[in-house]
């Protein structure tokens, strides 16, 4: 199947398809997913998202020059129809090894150095390739529909975005939050993700081979990247 490229910022039209991809609709688990999430999509269809979102492409490189690594695929995803126009027309099978796609709140860049991310972290899920696209689709919908954010309101934390990075035999899918030192918030986010995902997509155990939480400042290169950003 030939998949058209998404044009940056709607400078050229894309197909007006606001339903999930045909492949997802025909998968064995589609009925279960629909039963869990059709109410969310149904409620959102006539309404804008509470937050606007930007879709980014991150081309893997050892360089810390993110102006050369990051590309905006769609600058303003304001509602569910716009999301599916972008999602359904993106050539997901063409994303290269170690490249990433991010969906972040508009105005927040998907990098540690962004002021909103400096003290944050993310839940990371190592998902087999056979389930990765379905997993990322659900995580993105739940994030943009404010399912995760609503769970963290009392903790004054924020879910800032989600990412999918291609690995050799899996995808690393991440949910980023603002307060990486708030243990209660981190546990609430974990529980909400696991409860909201379709049963067949839920990881069976925690740990580096399944899923884990990591603060951004625990990553190699974090302090160098932040220092370089401040001095630039």
From TrEMBL:
One of its GO terms (cellular component) is eukaryotic translation initiation factor 4F complex. It comes from Aspergillus clavatus (strain ATCC 1007 / CBS 513.65 / DSM 816 / NCTC 3887 / NRRL 1 / QM 1276 / 107). GO terms for molecular function: RNA 7-methylguanosine cap binding; translation initiation factor activity. Belongs to the eukaryotic initiation factor 4E family. This is Translation initiation factor eIF4E, putative. The keyword Protein biosynthesis applies. Coiled coil: none annotated. It comes from the Eukaryota. InterPro entries: TIF_eIF4e-like, TIF_eIF_4E. The keyword Protein biosynthesis applies. One of its GO terms (biological process) is regulation of translation.
């Amino acid at each position: 199947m030939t998949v058209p490229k998404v044009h940056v910022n709607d400078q050229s039209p894309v197909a007006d398809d606001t339903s999930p991809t045909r492949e997802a609709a025909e998968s064995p688990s589609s009925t279960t997913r629909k039963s869990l999430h059709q109410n969310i999509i149904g409620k959102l269809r006539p309404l804008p998202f509470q937050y606007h979102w930007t879709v980014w492409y991150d081309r893997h490189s050892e360089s810390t020059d993110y102006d050369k690594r990051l590309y905006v695929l769609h600058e303003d995803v304001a509602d569910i129809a716009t999301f599916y126009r972008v999602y359904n027309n993106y050539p997901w099978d063409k994303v290269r090894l170690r490249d990433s796609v991010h969906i972040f709140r508009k105005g927040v860049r998907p990098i540690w150095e962004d002021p909103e991310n400096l003290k944050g972290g993310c839940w990371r899920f190592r998902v087999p390739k056979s389930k990765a696209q379905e997993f990322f689709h659900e995580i993105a919908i739940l994030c943009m529909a404010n399912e995760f954010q609503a769970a963290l309101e009392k903790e004054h934390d924020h879910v800032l975005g989600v990412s999918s990075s291609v690995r050799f035999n899996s995808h690393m899918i991440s949910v980023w939050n603002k307060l990486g030192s708030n243990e209660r918030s981190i546990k609430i986010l974990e529980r909400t993700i696991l409860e909201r995902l379709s049963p067949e997509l839920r990881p069976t155990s925690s740990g580096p081979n399944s899923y884990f939480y990591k603060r951004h400042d625990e990553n190699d290169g974090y302090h160098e990247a932040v220092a370089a950003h401040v001095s630039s």
